[in-house]
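Budget justification, computational time. The allocation requested in the original proposal was used primarily to generate structure tokens for proteins on the priority list. As evidence of use, we reproduce two of the resulting records. The first is shown immediately below.
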Amino acid sequence: MLAKLSPHEAYRRVDFDARVCGANAAELVHLCYEHLVGSLGTAIHAHETGDNALKSRSLTRALTSITALQLGVSGEQGIAEALRQLYESARREVLDSAITFKPDRIANVRRDFEEIGQALRVG
């Protein structure tokens, strides 16, 4: 399967898989944030260069990260509810941009998750 991918994409997948296998719960959340921020950045770049295939793959990867984050939320109140709202809002923005790409809105989502990810690293 990796033979069908570019060398860069194959390396990215192997690196990602290795990091997932050795991660604890907090590291997995950080990895999802990192993956989401990177995917949204790539989608913006692909939009600017007119690479629709890369933009589509990047948005799909972003949705995968959001879905993983959503599945990891436990509990019904407090921070759990706030996280569910955040992730659902991000999911809607990404899905809307799959139809009509809105680089400013995707950049805002990216910036929000980048800031949260940095805060998680510090804390």
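The second record produced under the same allocation is shown here.
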Amino acid sequence: MSDDRSEAIAQAEERGAHQLATEPRARAARYDRRHGRVLVELTNGCSFAFPARDAEGLEQASDADLTQIEVLGLGVGLHWKRLDVDLSVPGLLMGLFGTKAYMDRQRAARAGAATSPAKAAAARRNGAKGGRPRKAAVVKRK
């Protein structure tokens, strides 16, 4: 094996050991049907919970499917075999319930559903003007 490759492997092993020592790892996980949350116990004695159906891939899952949680490897992830869903424990702790695209869609949906007195007043003013303006017709030139 070349020296460069041996060095790269040694560095990767060192990074992996550091991550195992410093990043949160799951010891156990279970689904709480009553509250609709996944409860995760960490190796450092802490625990956390998250709303199961807020996570990508779990939105439409049945309670029976949600109870089938497996802790992956050294506690870096959670796996639902019947749903073919994997979630990262460090990601969940950071409030990431899926891929960037999924999180962007979730944020946009919440923003569009937000209400405020200013938004309601703007909607009333727009309605008094006849509602949303129609799209302008596109004129094709030859």
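A brief technical remark on that second record: The CA atoms of residues 33 and 77 lie 21 Å apart.
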